[in-house]
Amino acid sequence: VRRAPHPTDEAIEPLLPELAALLAAERRAPPPPAARRARIFARLQPLVGAGAGAGAAIGAAPPAAMGSKILAAALVAGAIGVGGAIGLFGRPPPPTAAPAATTTERERPAAAPTSPFTPPPAEPAQASRRRRPTTTATRAAPDLVGLRAEAAILERARGALAAGDPSAALATLADAERAFPRGFLREEREALSIRALAAAGQRAAARTRAAAFAREFPASIQAAALADALRDDVR
Amino acid sequence: MGGSALFQTDRARGGQFVGMSRGAGGLNVADARAEVDFRALYEQQFRYVFRTLRRLGAAPAEADDLVQEVFTVVFQRLADYDRNRPIEPWLFGIAFRVASMHRRRRSRRVPEVALGARELADEDAAGPEASLGDRRARELVLRALDALSLDQRAVFVMHEIDEQPIPVVAETLAIPLNTAYSRLRAARAGFAARVRRLEGRHAGEGTS
User: Fold this and answer.
1) What is the pTM of this model?
2) How distant is the Cα of A129 from the closest Cα of chain B, in angstroms?
3) Who wins on pLDDT, B16 or A188?
């Protein structure tokens, strides 16, 4: 069923019927099997459960192909200290988490949830070993330790900004820039800096920096939020 | 808040989530995330994210990693998600960014090819007995999309398959409206030409 065309799209000619039919078939594509859905979620589990303990995410072995990106993201979430992650499932996460690589075989091809909005319960983890954040953290490679530190500084800045202290946030962000000039989380750092500048009333500086941000990260998904932050009087 | 039905999609309102509540005073990041049933979001949007990545050129073997990457970003940014806005463009923006970064990392483009039986079974819950016509059409679509640059492809997929209005496409991809329209025109021409070529080859008529 096609949605009603947007008024501004009326000028667009309709597609040739045979092409439209091909695209309709793609639109109807069935979902991948439930087993695959569960398999990928199992790989997200360390991230989602990161709030269970600071640094827990670092214990997750990311698949080789993804390397540091996923890990960095996991670190951000970990550093953000999602103590509330416990609430994500409406109950505490399982005490153990299966290592991603071995979880795959154990995933039963779960039936689809009864309602698209009611997810099946999380698979009970059966890992034989408990993740120990402290020991895994000490095993982490130096660059991963750096990522964790970078994420932690950013989180401090985010906390200061949320607490209504943009000056402290800016000072912390300046520290982050000195310590990690080409940091992996540079985009997040710049976005935070712009918000902090706006919150501190330095709107001209915020706009200048936002323009540089737009040039450097043209496809950033933070762009719209930043535009909002600059448009409104920021809290 | 508890419960598992926090992420209900209201198609009539353009597919945004309803039920993700935020106090008037604003919540901190952890609180906002705690209110959000990430698992429900994942279950509900897995198919969309998977198909979007395939449409943006992710090879079957890469799709798991990229889906994981998209939902990792989603998890990070949930607190920033405005529940009054449709979810699909938001997810598309993240998937597009992940796909672009992936393409930069990848040394060569992986052309879309016909799937083997095992890959097919992992791609498609409908099983091999599903409509051959539909399956062949989908394969043709993905292969024809390969004719497009990622920028054109994103506009085409979002408008022609997701049926998002061009202004939404332009906003999601952070491009001017005119650029979105011109990319759509170019993408349509490129797509149609590649379909003709592939169909011609399929029918044994040779190619131009």
Assistant:
1) 0.54
2) 24
3) A188
Cβ-based neighbours of A114, under 8 Å, separated by 6 or more: none
Both tokens of residue B34? 């705690």
What's the complex ipTM? Answer: 0.79
Mean pLDDT value across residues B23-35: 42
Within an 8 Å CB–CB cutoff, is residue A37 touching chain B?
yes
- pLDDT of B189 reads 96
Name residue B18's beta-bridge partners: B8
- Residue B195 sits at the chain A interface (C-beta within 8 Å): yes
User: Between residues 172 and 211 of chain A, which touch chain B (CB distance below 8 Å)?
Assistant: none
Q: Is the pLDDT of residue A194 over 80?
A: yes
Mean pLDDT lowest among A174-178, B116-120, B162-166: B116-120
Judging contacts by C-beta atoms under 8 Å, the chain B residues touching residue A70 are 68-69, 72
HEC string for B150-185: HHHHHHHHHHHHCCCCHHHHHHHHCCCHHHHHHHHH
Contacts of A190 (CB under 8 A, 6+ apart): A209, A212, A213, A216, A217
Nearest CA-CA distance, residue B106 and chain A, Å: 11
